Amino acid sequence: MTYKDQIDMSRLPGHVAVIMDGNGRWAHRRGRERVFGHHEGVKAVRKTVEASAELGVRYLTLYAFSTENWNRPDDEVSALMDLMIESINNETGTLVEKSISLRVIGDLSRLSEKVRNRLFETMKITSQGSRMTLVVALSYSSRWEISEACRRIAVEVREGRMRPDQIDEHTVSTFLTTSDIPDPELMIRTSGEKRISNFLLWQLAYTELYFTKKLWPDFGKEDFYKAVADFQKRERRYGKTSEQIAENS
Ligand code: IPE
Ligand code: IPE
Ligand code: MG
Fold it and tell me: The whole model's pTM is what?
């Protein structure tokens, strides 16, 4: 039985987030430059997007480049940016065809105008896609996002549009870049690292975490299905007891 056959289609995670990690190590193991791994990683992106859309997952968020990744060597950063443009150019048609809309979250002010314009254009072209939203976290970090939200809430208070006692969890959520996106139900990280690396810290509060040793370029559709099948075996208690969960199901 394949992992896909094990999936209960009536209990799919509505939102899956992925930390695509391990491209550099994948390339090094083959005696190649890190950038080769990033190129191969694009194929895994395609497979994961396809697998999610085919299953019926509504939101897929991919961590493509963190705020901290700006500190990598210049040639790697510029290769990643070129790869971003190349992939978007190659995939826009497929996204439209498959009714997938693209969203980008992150500090886009740090991107070059060329990359930024290309992203905005693609978001516009794909905006009618209703099957799945592909959220790409680019120049993103959660601490950046939360600080940004704090700054904007402070302005609302200063301008008299909001009182401090009105600020609750819901308010904070609405000031995040993901305000109109449900929290991820499943978060996958490849490459064996077991950390969050500044990704969606607020949104992952009750997300099920799944770690696999597979390096990102080796991650295929069956690996994605395996993660979803594993997710479906878990009991999500949200602070309650197992008995309470059983009573309500
Ligand atoms: C993930 O792979 C891609 C990005 C972070 C852009 P890495 O480049 O981090 O690969 P490793 O972790 O060094 O193997
Ligand atoms: C996390 O991977 C960021 C992305 C996958 C884009 P890193 O490779 O940058 O994370 P650390 O440095 O190992 O925590
Ligand atoms: Mg890494």
Answer: 0.97
Take residue 23 and report the two structure tokens written for it.
């491209």
Q: Does residue 69 carry a catalytic annotation?
A: yes
User: Within the chain, what is the greatest distance between any pair of CA atoms?
Assistant: 60
Angle, helices 74-97/34-55, rounded to nearest 10 degrees: 20
* Among 61, 66, 81, 104, residue to substitute to test ligand 2 (most atoms within 8 Å of Cβ): 66
Give the sign of the dihedral formed by CA 221, CA 225, CA 227, CA 228. Answer: positive
Confidence category of residue 1, pLDDT binned at 50, 70, 90: confident
Question: Measured between alpha carbons, how far is 64 from 73 in angstroms, rounded to an integer?
Answer: 16
Run of H or E including 89: helix 74-97
Ligand 2, atom 2, lies closest to the CA of: 21
Q: What is the pLDDT of residue 193?
A: 98
CATH number listed for the domain at residues 11-233: 3.40.1180.10
- Predicted pLDDT at 248: 86
Q: Is residue 190 lining ligand 1, measured as CB closer than 6 Å? A: no
Q: Determine the residue of 18, 19, 20, 21 to mutate for testing ligand 1's pocket, defined as the one with the most ligand atoms within 8 A of the Cβ atom.
A: 21
**Token output for 108:** 């886009």
Kindly report the average pLDDT of the chain as a whole number: 97
